[in-house]
C-alpha cells in the first residue's frame, strides 16, 4: 500500500475545532425597549418572555447573547440586527 504525502503541507498545522460563535446585542441610547423586544420576537422568533428577558439583559448588563452557532450564521444575525438599527457584534463563545 502506498501512502500519498504532500511535501507542501506542514503537518504541524492544527485545524482549530469548530468553536461556537455568538451574536451579541449591545445597549444603545436610541432604541426603545419595546422596539428591541419586537425585533427579537420578529427576527429570532423568541417568545414574548424570552425576548423581554434578553432585552432586559441588554438594558441592565449592557449586552446580551441572542444566538450561538457557526460564525457565518452569527455574522448574518449581526448584520440583520444592524439592519434593524441595533448594535451587534460577533465573538467566540467562551470555553
Automatic annotation (TrEMBL):
Protein's GO biological process: protein catabolic process; proteolysis
Organism superkingdom: Bacteria
GO MF assignments: peptidase activity
Adaptor protein ClpS core domain location: 19-89
Transmembrane stretches, start-end: none
InterPro entries reported for this sequence: ClpS, ClpS_core, Ribosomal_bL12_C/ClpS-like
Keywords associated with the record: Hydrolase, Protease
Family stated for the protein in its record: Belongs to the ClpS family.
Oligomer and partners: Binds to the N-terminal domain of the chaperone ClpA.
Main function: Involved in the modulation of the specificity of the ClpAP-mediated ATP-dependent protein degradation.
NCBIfam families: PRK00033.1-1
Name the UniProt record assigns to this protein: ATP-dependent Clp protease adapter protein ClpS
Organism: Microbacterium sorbitolivorans
